[in-house]
Specification:
343 residues, alpha/beta, 3 domains, five-stranded mixed beta sheet, 46% helix
Length: 343
């Protein structure tokens, strides 16, 4: 019990004594018990199953992370972890569900860059405020994005792609999973930084986009490494670089875009993180933060995550809170500059 908590006992005891005529000694004990009860309740957290809301359908990167860590988290916390897929509206259906849940730590959101950052800059009306309606708990993983081209394009490096694009302005097309998506905004940053001209072709999802780049009607894609690298292995696509600030553990020989001269600091990192409703008790936040940080460095868990194109990050709730604010500002500016709006 903290010093601040103890300081409330005497006033509480005095109020009980005056209101109900309870002896001062008995009132002091009762006041201490009433004030300490929430502390001990939170210290016992969790004492029932935890619902982990995945704001996307099964099979995607968020769902993959949830299912990799599910068993280890259950063992670490001593409670069942229930995965609840609530997809829709660019992760905002699941996000809204968690934002309106009781802030007791038993309903949590596995959010990502879309729902917790980018959407604020591309949707005119949001069902929640990512900086006010959630309690940040921990940044979980970065999702490696890779810049690929169709194998028929005569380029093998980012520098060669830039040279080709400058020699053929407006002739290259690049795809995205929709206006305002990370592949769209990330590629627009790439265009602005390099001064090249490529035509944006938005799709209603990643599947049709991948099909078109495989068929050659689309030349350039910035997308999820886990979805694209199998086609690089078969030779149908060529990987030029990863969009994160560090090389991928899964493909360490592949350079980052930032290693290209003139593109230092380039970063279009997709990420995920754990959050709960606003107002969660600090003791519960600390318990969950500790559990996730421990689980993500377990060798077997980390191996599966890396093999799936995810890089464990971790950190404190305060770091994640600052990170979300920075990402909202960063991608909001990009969306405004290019006029991106949700489809």
């Amino acid at each position: 019990m903290t010093t601040r908590t103890v300081s409330f006992i005497k006033p509480a005891a005095h109020a009980l004594h005056r209101a109900y005529g309870i002896s001062r000694r008995r009132a002091t004990w009762l006041g201490a018990a009433l004030i300490a009860a929430p502390f001990f309740a939170y210290a016992a957290f969790p004492d029932k199953p935890i619902r982990l809301v995945v704001p996307a359908p099964p099979g995607g990167a968020i769902d993959f992370f949830a299912r990799v860590v599910q068993q280890a988290l259950s063992e670490t916390l001593g409670q069942q972890i229930i995965i609840d897929n609530k997809g829709g509206a660019s992760t905002m259906v699941g996000g809204s569900f968690v934002a309106n849940a009781p802030p007791d730590g038993y309903t949590l959101l596995l959010g990502n860059i879309a729902g917790l950052a980018i959407n604020a800059g591309i949707y005119p009306k949001m069902p929640y405020d990512a900086t006010k309606d959630f309690t940040p708990i921990v940044r979980t993983v970065d999702v490696n994005y890779v810049l690929v081209v169709h194998s028929s394009l005569p380029v093998k490096t980012v520098a060669e792609l830039l040279a080709y694009a400058r020699a053929n302005p407006g002739k290259l097309t690049y795809g995205s999973a929709g206006s305002g998506s990370l592949p769209h905004l990330g590629t627009e940053i790439f265009k602005v930084r390099t001064g090249i001209d490529m035509v944006h072709v938005p799709y209603k999802g990643g599947g049709p986009m991948v099909n078109d780049v495989l068929g050659g009607s689309l030349q350039v894609v910035l997308g999820d490494q886990a979805n694209l690298m199998p086609h690089v292995t078969t030779g149908r696509l060529r990987a030029l670089a990863v969009a994160t600030t560090r090389r991928s553990s899964l493909a360490p020989d592949l350079p980052t875009i930032a290693e290209t001269p003139g593109l230092a600091g380039f970063d279009a990192t997709a990420w995920q993180g754990l959050a709960g409703p606003a107002g969660m008790p600090p003791e519960v936040v600390a318990r969950l933060n500790d559990a996730f940080n421990k689980v993500m460095v377990m060798p077997a868990v980390r191996k599966k995550l890396v093999e799936g194109g995810l890089e464990p990050t971790g950190g404190t709730p305060e770091q994640f809170k600052r990170f979300i604010s920075d990402e909202i500002a960063k991608w909001g500016k990009v969306a405004k500059d290019v006029g991106a709006k949700a489809d």
